[in-house]
Model the fold of this input.
Amino acid sequence: MSDSPALSVRNLCVYVREDRTERTVVDGVSFDLAPGEVLALVGESGCGKSKTAEAIMGLVPEAVGRVTADAIELGDLDLAALGERGLQKIRGCEISMVFQEPLTALDPVFSNGYQLATQYRRHRGQSRRQSRNSARDMLRRVGFDDPDRIMRSYPHQLSGGMRQRLIIAMAMACKPRVLVADEPTTALDVTTQAQVLSQMIQMGRDTGTAILLITHDLGIVAQYCDRALVMRQGLMVEDASVKTLFVSPDHAYTATLISAAREMSL
Done:
């Protein structure tokens, strides 16, 4: 892995507006993500994991809340200083996101092939024919044996696992520096979950893409991740390698999470 982080976040705070007041949902989060690393962001529901991801991606609407940070650096780019137009240029190219529910990220009126090929036309300047060939190759890489049928069909004609593979194909199309995956397999059965996660992480390894994997599932952390950040009530309470996390957690909250996960697996 390179010594220079793919993503560097410093003192990230997210405030959500409620009536006439503001509530802090992410409070001073800082971390580095190395190229090719799989970093888990772990914690119970409501701890601020997803809001952290949305803030990094510039997806917290001003009508809902506000974001402050000393720095959100994607290589040499300072995301915190970019406006919406600047962020639109790099989303899907330099940094991509996989959402928990793929139907929210897919347009029901366009074919799957059109939506995937658009990534190559928009960010790589490919022709219509080139983009369709690239889309076909990418669908094969994420496990589709019949890419032409997938390209002709529409999101509602795919199963949940197939839709998530399509979203991963779109997110990885331009070999981004960073992929943010927010609970990407929660709605899938265990077998499909394992297949989708394995394909996503292997693609990251192949391209050197760093992955920030947001999850509440410590089994996934143990199996797929290199390092973990643990969040509680908006604060980051632990940053450790996965081996250290499970053998000798530093924070009492982390130990409680691991104990609860082990009890549930019995």
